[in-house]
Every structure is written in C-alpha cells, then in structure tokens.
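INFO  loader      accepted 1 record
INFO  loader      residues=407
INFO  predictor   begin
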Amino acid sequence: NLWFGTMNGLTKHTLSQKSREVLPPVLHFEDITLFYKSLSETPYNEWLASSGGLREGLELPYRQNHLSFDFKAINLSAPESLRYRWKMEGVEEEWSPLSTRESVNYSQLLPGEYTFTVQAVTDDNLYSEPISASFLIQKPFWQLRWVQALAAVLAALLIFLFVRSRIRAFRKKEEAKRQELEMQNHVLELEQKALQLQMNPHFIFNALNSIQSLVAAKENLTARSQIHKFAALMRSILSNSRKEKITLKEEINTLDKYLRMEQFCQPVPFDFEIQAPTDVDAEEIELPPMLLQPFVENAVIHGISHLQNKKGKLVINFSIEKQKNSSDKLLLCQIQDNGVGRKRAAELRQSKQPGHQSVAMEVTRERLEAMKNGASYTALDIQDLANNQDEVLGTVVFVRMPLEVSF
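INFO  predictor   done
INFO  writer      dumping tokens
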C-alpha cells in the first residue's frame, strides 16, 4: 500500500485498484519554413500565429513556392506510439499513410489556394484535433486575367496591323504591276496606231500604181471603182485608229476591204473567206483595231504572192474558245493560207531584203502578250501545214485574246 499525507489526513492508494484515463495527443506546429528558412526570419513573419500556425490571409508571390511544415504531438502516457497523417488541399485529395515523420516539404507549388492539415494518432486510435495552415500563392502577372485580356487585344491588334500591312503591300504591288502593264499597253497602242497610220507603203504604192495602169489603159470605170474602194479602206483605217476598241463586225469589214484591194494589186489571184462566230453576234464582240491586219498581210505578201501555177486561198475564221482551267472565254482567230510556208517565205525575203524584220509583227505579238494579263493561254501560235510527204501546204496562224462582249 501507498500512503499519502495530505491536509485532510492520510490517503491510502491500493495499486491493484488503480485506473488509467487515456487522453488523445495534443498537436502543434513547431515551425513553418519558406525555402528552408523559418517564416519568422522572413518578411512574412507577421503572418505567424501565436499557436505556431498561420494567420488567415497569407499571400505569397509565385516564386515563393517551397514550404516545409514541422509539427509535434504530446502524449505522456505513450509517446512512442505517436503516428501522423497529413494532406495538402489543392495538391492531395486523400490523407497520407500514417508515418512517424514530423516534417513535410512541398516544392514548386503552382499558383492557387492551399490548406495544409495534419493530425496525430496513438496506438489506441485516439486522434488529436487536426491543425491547419492556409495560404495562397499568387499568379504571375502574365497569368492575370486583365493581363491576358490585354495581351489578347494587343496580339489581335498586331495581327490586324500585320495583315493590313501585307494587304496594303500586296495592293500596292498589284497597283504598280497594273500601272506598268497599262503603261506597256498604252505604249503598244501608240506604236500600233503609228503602224496603222503608216500602212505598208508598198501596199499603197502597188494600189496606186495599179489604179494608174487602169487610167493609162483608159479603163476609167474600173479605175473609179478601185479608187472608191481604196478611199473607203483608208477612211476605215483612219476611223478605227482613233478608237481603243471596235466591234468584230467593223474589223471584218476592214479586213474585207483590205483583201479586196490586195486581190486587185497582187499578180497572183487568190480567193478569201471570212467566217464570223456563230454563237455570238459579231456586233457585240469588241477588240483592238487592226490587230489582225499584220497576220493577214503576211499571209498574202509572204505566202500566197509566191505561189506558182496555183491559185491562192485564204480563210479567216473567228470562234469562241473556253480557256483551260478557267471559266473565262477567248476569241480565237484562225488565219490559214495555202502559201509557200514560213521557211520558203523567209528565204525569199532574205534574198530581196537581207536583215529585214517585221516591226508590226513584233509589236502585235507584244501587245497580245500584254492583253493576257497574267493568264496562261497561248496568245499567238504559228504552224506550217504539210502532207504525208512533208510537202508544204500553207501556214495557219492562231491568235487568241480575251473575249470582250458589250451589251
């Protein structure tokens, strides 16, 4: 027995009758560190609570994201049986397994709100009251909504300015290209008009000389008829030369007058035929004036005029052709003769006029190329015709230009 002397007398304690009251452990934070430095030694020491935890409202910059929590429980009856469990709300959803560890580290925490909670337990499954520490890690400034909204507006503005700048540059480039093409076309038009006004002097001389021979032979009626035809042709050429565009019907009439005068002037007889398109009215189609005259003149002067023991034949056919890989249509003029061919004509031309080149043909070729305006069709194609024995049967010229229809 144990006897205790007290103010109220003696007290007897019988060991066999002892009883023990088991209490849950008492848990507290021993320290909270930021990057391995106690929070009390940092500029955030004011957020430490007197109990060792954190006061509400602690906000840390996004770079201050490495925290450690040191804790300890007191259990006098069985200190060796203490175990701990914890969780970080915002990172972990479940409690950690029970452990004897008394410190937990969290590094590289992302911006957001966090609450660290820890609890102690004994072997008798007596749990302490949980203790918590709440804090917030701020977002970096570039993750703030107003910053992101401002960045989105600036990015949209920069994209808009870039696109507008590219569009302006493209338009400026296209405008410069268009002006250059217009200038080239204008120059070609002026050269073409100069050529129209300076019609082949040999043709004029031959025409006048043939009319003079009629007058000398006192064939006055025929001479008057030819003078009238010649004057009508000159008026038609001068009238058309003042226009940028004429109708296909006017062009056909001018070519008809020209070929009738050539029939009168050339020593070699020939027939000609001009065929208008069947699906479009010739009065509704527009084209530059006298654009085809150089090719028709070549067919007569260098092809048919050199024929021997054979009558010449010239066919001019107009038709509508669909442009490849496009819905646009082209005006196709096919000029076919049964002359001596290009090779023989070149040999004869060199023998009479060495080094001579047709300026009208080159100007017309350049003008046809300018009229393409970037399209991929073949504007001018010249081919010799031959039979199975490679005998030349003539020449055919294909002239293509954009179809322009007036309503």
